[in-house]
Design goal:
alpha/beta, Rossmann fold, 2 domains, seven-stranded mixed sheet, 7 helices, 10 strands, globular, disordered N terminus
Length: 263
């Protein structure tokens, strides 16, 4: 009996030593996590920052305002939110690549190499519009970009987060097909009204000037810029005795927090 008691005591002593060593190792591991992990995680985060790609199309080639608006809008958006790369296409009276097929190709190219679950695709379209969609005019080529066309193109990119800004008459027709919590849609008009300012030699349309050229240069978020732009457009339209175009903003509840302008 005495021998068995001594053996049990020895076994217990060995177990106690083992437990003390394990406790020390656990403490060292915790200390490593507390002291080293914080210094590593910011480096990892910086190397995997969220990216934004900008695609901007001036679809109607017979008037230079759409070329200038597509170019200027892309530059301002990229400067404010860090968009990279930027793809700008526009048409002229002689032709151009800003067609339905060209848009599908550019959107897919922009999505390639991006993180489809975390990065952001921002699309800007400027043209004449109707209740059927957006006018595409490149030389003799005439097309209509419908809400269904655009919805299918965007779905094929595989991008989760998207922003679509459309400067055109009746552009609100795109909202029912495009807007959802992961896709923010901003339009120059509702589905029943024209927008204004598409003179050939103008640099901006009324909405393009108010949203991109004025509000977005100062606002920290797209929502803030839209609120300011909508007020500016309405004031100008009433002053010039036009029926209000009623710009709209819909969807994007999950996208808006991801887009904060640079200081």
């Amino acid at each position: 009996m005495a021998g068995c008691a001594l053996e049990q005591e020895a076994d217990c002593g060995g177990e106690a030593v083992y437990l003390r060593w394990m406790n020390r190792l656990s403490a060292l591991f915790v200390a490593f996590v507390v002291t080293v992990a914080p210094s590593v995680s910011p480096v990892y985060a910086a190397g995997h920052a969220r990216r934004m790609s900008v695609v901007s199309f001036g679809l109607f080639g017979d008037q230079g305002v759409f070329r200038r608006e597509a170019t200027g809008a892309a530059q301002i958006v990229a400067a404010r939110f860090g968009g990279d790369p930027i793809r700008v296409q526009y048409n002229s009276r002689k032709g151009g690549a800003a067609t339905i097929e060209g848009l599908a190709t550019s959107l897919q190219a922009a999505a390639n190499g991006m993180d489809g679950q975390n990065d952001i695709l921002l699309l800007i379209l400027t043209s004449h519009g109707s209740r059927a969609g957006l006018a595409v005019k490149a030389g003799r080529l005439a097309q209509t970009l419908t809400p269904s066309n655009l919805a299918d193109m965007l779905a094929r990119t595989g991008m989760r987060y998207k922003v679509v800004i459309i400067s055109a008459c009746y552009s609100g027709v795109f909202i029912p097909r495009l807007a959802n919590p992961n896709t923010l849609v901003i339009t120059a008009a509702d589905a029943d009204h024209p927008s204004f300012g598409c003179r050939d030699k103008a640099k901006w349309t009324y909405f393009g000037n108010a949203f991109f050229n004025v509000a977005l240069r100062r606002a920290d978020t797209l929502k803030d810029a839209f609120v300011v732009a909508r007020a500016l457009v309405r004031k100008r339209e009433l002053r010039e005795r036009f029926e209000p175009s009623n710009p709209l903003m819909s969807g994007g509840e999950n996208v808006q927090p991801l887009l904060i302008a640079r200081p």
